[in-house]
Specification:
Blueprint (H helix, E strand, L loop, with lengths): L9 E4 L2 E4 L13 E7 L6 H14 L12 H10 L5 E8 L4 E7 L6 H6 L1 E6 L13 H14 L3 E5 L4 E5 L3 E6 L2 E4 L9 H12 L4 E3 L2 E2 L8 E6 L3 E8 L2 E2 L5 H19 L1
């Protein structure tokens, strides 16, 4: 269930740094709520991730104040102890056990050509349970992996029983038509931290954002599509199934530019 980076040597548990030869046995009895935070000399949007972690815990009826959550300094130290200049840290909270662990996880940052040319995505007819709680859901994760291996696609877009596109399996999705930007309402999705930052950028650009889940058979009505997420940032889509989009769309490129500037600002604050 866990995806430890094979070069890491230490993890963090309830305030202690421990060697990875100790056993991860909590996953057998409880599915954790979690967050993944990106690091490159600085932890990007760390406070936002911890805030969403608390929302997930509250959604399960847990009391965040009784659970030991890591600090920024502790997570920085975890990267230093493992001698990692960049990467992702996953923070898993087990409410019933009252235990929190954090470890360096495997990650993939898209190469420049994917930001230039866009990625292909496909439909996955699934719905996340408890959309506003970020909790490991093994059945969907397994099905996603099988679909991506079979098709060679970069990501799947989840389609609910009403035929509405809600979100990616590990990303959020935006559609563009006539200068207006569409994304599913917060109550229908796991609203990502990167999505939150991008929405603020869109608003600051003076663009119209419409909170509406797109029906899957209407995707040909849109000119451009992009994904957002912790590891990918803002990533253009070149195709959904057999429908093509413009990865060099001006609005997408402007949003990408402003988001990258935001990341630089976060890095040096």
């Amino acid at each position: 269930m866990i995806s430890l980076h094979n070069s890491s040597k230490y993890y963090w548990k309830n305030g202690e740094f421990l060697p990875l030869d100790t056993t991860f046995d909590l996953y057998k009895s409880e599915s954790p709520v979690y967050e993944v935070v990106r690091y490159n000399g600085e932890l990007f949007f760390f406070d936002d991730h911890i805030s969403r972690l608390k929302i997930s815990l509250a959604g399960l009826g847990a009391k965040p104040k009784t659970i030991h959550l890591p600090s920024t300094d502790e997570m920085r130290e975890l990267f230093v102890k493992n001698n990692f200049p960049e990467g992702n840290v996953r923070i898993d909270v087990f409410p019933k056990a009252g235990t929190t662990v954090a470890y360096l996880t495997t990650f993939f940052y898209p190469p420049e050509e994917l930001y230039r040319d866009g990625v292909k995505v496909i439909f996955q007819y699934d719905e996340r349970k408890n959309q506003q709680i970020k909790q490991f859901q093994e059945e969907i994760k397994i099905k996603t992996a099988e679909l991506l291996i079979k098709t060679g696609a970069f990501e799947t877009l989840l389609v609910n029983k009403h035929g509405q596109i809600t979100e990616g399996s590990k990303s959020n999705v935006f559609f563009i038509k006539e200068g207006k930007i569409y994304t599913a309402p917060d109550l229908m999705i796991l609203a990502g931290v990167t999505r939150k930052k991008v929405i603020r950028i869109i608003e600051n650009m003076g663009l119209t954002i419409i909170y509406q889940a797109i029906v899957h058979h209407e995707i040909t009505d849109y000119e451009a599509v992009f994904l957002t997420g912790t590891s990918i940032g803002v990533l253009p889509v070149k195709a959904i199934e057999n429908n093509n989009y413009d990865p060099k769309n001006r609005v997408v490129r402007e949003i990408m530019k402003y988001f990258n500037q935001k990341m630089i600002q976060e890095r040096f604050i």
